[in-house]
Specification:
- The chain is of the alpha/beta class.
- The protein has one domain: TIM Barrel (Alpha-Beta Barrel).
- The protein has ten helices and nine strands.
- A four-stranded parallel beta sheet has the order 3-2-1-9, sandwiched between helices. A three-stranded parallel beta sheet has the order 6-7-8.
- It starts with a helix and ends with a helix.
- 46% of the residues are buried.
- It binds 3-phosphoglyceric acid.
- 3-phosphoglyceric acid is lined by residues 15, 67-68, 130, 156-159, 177-180.
- The site of 3-phosphoglyceric acid has 12 residues, from strand 9.
Length: 213
């Protein structure tokens, strides 16, 4: 599956963070019901692999990737548990090579021009830009886009409904990621309607930022 192509039309990647696979499933269904059909199940809980497997198996409407993948070993585990793509906070050759060898898209985090150049030389044409708001935000993205003409970016970190349109208006931005779509309090309260509403809001912002109806 060409995830980058899917992200062209669904340019927002929410985070699914759960300790319980049943909750990961509910959150993923709520996101997909709101139109967000690509999500990162983040490796920040002890049961993240079970959550990933559960979403991959039981939520066919969701394209589930693994997020916060820190090592080549974790990347392999993610792939073995059904990850359709892998996201990292930073750029690690082992993570990238593991994914490339498996034919799984990988979006490693970059922060500096050196990171982006390193990613380019690893054969990547899409990278995460993290944490986007601290790494210089939109002015930084515009500045590097002129140099790395073929690179597309996934800004994450400090993105929200308030600034999503501005990020998506930058031509080199493929998609934005973030945790604002799955607030911890809504997840804890089982308020999945809230998550669907946030997803719908993000899709509406994305459509208007991209000039669609
Ligand atoms: C990530 O893992 O990509 C970030 O934690 C998301 O950052 P945010 O919480 O500011 O959206």
């Amino acid at each position: 599956m060409n995830i980058s192509k899917v992200l062209e039309s669904v340019p927002v990647v929410p985070l699914v963070q759960a300790d319980d696979p049943a909750v990961a499933i509910d959150v993923s269904r709520a996101l997909a019901a709101g139109g967000l059909t690509v999500a990162e199940v983040v490796f920040r809980t002890d049961r993240a692999l079970d959550c990933l497997r559960a979403v991959a198996d039981d939520v066919p409407e969701m394209i589930a990737g693994a997020g916060t993948v820190l090592s080549a070993e974790q990347a392999q585990q993610a792939i073995d548990h059904g990850a359709k793509f892998v996201v990292s906070p930073g750029l690690d050759d082992g993570v990238v090579r593991t994914c490339q060898d498996a034919g799984v898209p990988v979006y490693p985090g970059t922060y500096t021009p050196s990171d982006i150049q390193h990613a380019f030389n690893l054969g990547l044409d899409v990278v995460k830009f993290f944490p986007a708001s601290i790494a210089g935000g939109i002015p930084a993205l515009k500045a590097v886009a002129g140099v790395f003409r073929t690179m597309r970016f996934m800004p994450t970190g400090g993105v929200s409904a308030a600034n999503l349109a501005e990020f998506l208006a930058v031509p080199s931005v493929l998609a934005c990621g973030g945790s604002w779509l799955t607030p911890a309090d809504a997840v804890a309260a089982g308020d999945f309607q809230k998550i669907t509403a946030l997803a719908e809001e993000a899709i509406a912002i994305a459509r208007s930022a991209r000039g669609e109806k």
